[in-house]
Amino acid sequence: xxxxxxxxxxxxxxxxxxxxxxxxxxxxxNTHEYYMKEALKEAYEAFTxxxxxxxxVIVCNNRIIARAHNLTEQLTDVTAHAxxxxxTAASNYxxxxxxxxxxxxxxxxxCVMCAGAAYWTQISKIVFGAFDxxxxxxxxxxxxxxxxxxxxxxxxxxxxxELLKRYFKExxx
Length: 173
Ligand SMILES: [Zn+2]
Fold this sequence. Notes:
By secondary structure, the chain is an alpha/beta fold.
């Protein structure tokens, strides 16, 4: 009798826990997609300025504290990648040169320079969209990142990649 009663209690709590886990997973996934869409808005902004369309946002405590896009043409500066702009803006905002509580969302895999800059910021997490099969830092060495930096790849990679393909296609014609 008691055993039956216990079993009746165990099942709802098991289902509740599973639902919680599922909700957590979905929430995390959606969060990455949500912030990557914000980074994509920046990439579109770059596109309209005839810049290579790469966008980035930096998130701290579920809040976007920096938004940036590639500005190499406008600034005539090969180092003006979206990530570099975003690191500077985020540090200006927080007043802290380290971004160890923050996450960088960027539409394209960072290059070696930006991965190196990310190392110096000690950023907590990097989430990128499309892989850069020519100049991505993972082609050289994933250990360029700070040991504390978690890496998540491929979020909205098709959308991020398509915009770049469209840009280079239009450039050729
Ligand atoms: Zn870069």
